[in-house]
Amino acid sequence: MKKQIVSYLIENNELVKPEILERLKDPNTLKKAAKLVEEKAEAKQIIDVIKTNQAKEKEIKETEHKQNNRDGEDEDKWAVKVLFDYEKPALKKNVESFTKYFNNRFKQIEKLLLPRAENNISISRLANKTDRETVTVIGMIADKQLTKTNKVILTLEDQTGTIKALFSPNNQEAYKMAKDTVLDEVISVTGTAMKDLLFAEKMMLPEIPIRTEIKKSPEEAYAIFIADVHLGSNLFLEEEFGNFIDWLRGEYGTEEQKEIAKKTKYCFIAGDLVAGVGIYPKQEEELK
Hints:
7 strands, two-stranded parallel sheet, five-stranded mixed barrel, 3 domains, elongated, alpha/beta, 18% strand, CATH 2.40.50.140
């Protein structure tokens, strides 16, 4: 019934704000709005009827006050502040755009590897090495091969050139890591350089080192990380997401879970909150 009301309002060019959806949760309001839809009343009239539900409005304000003023704290502390509004016009992507992206990505990951890369040199300088010298190179995997003798060959490239790194099963640790790599991954390889080949002895991934000092918040607080909600898709888990929202409000779950919700102060949305449109052919058929 709620979906039919919302669809009717949208079809009649009426903006459905979040507060309208909230008030439609009230059975009496929902019933009145549904009757007007059946009578094909004007969309503005339906909106006015929904807004006049003063009892529900009072309940919403009390709920918001309870959530914003947790444990009697100052409401200003919980006010929403827009720190940065990312607005950039969509630009046509070309080869230069992708090159710039991968170069920037390489530099950022290289910074993570450099502190642990001993005797690090650029790939172009390997040609000047005549002796069997142990060196370290940082490169992006451009190609990956498995030889008949079960050895792994990774073609690495940086901004100066390319080199093939050979991983032998005799060195199991580095060999297993090499087998698990994927193209475009940035890694660090230490080994013996001979002409255009690097005999790999050690491999490192851009991991963040474990710090002995753990920084903690002065008060107990929780942060939530969510992603791939895909609101609007046929695969959107509406009931489960509704339970999640109710839990954040302290209206769902066990007492222990509600206590955690009460102390939850941050929610990070990693991406794909809303289902895309026009990403691939006939995608609109998968939307509600």
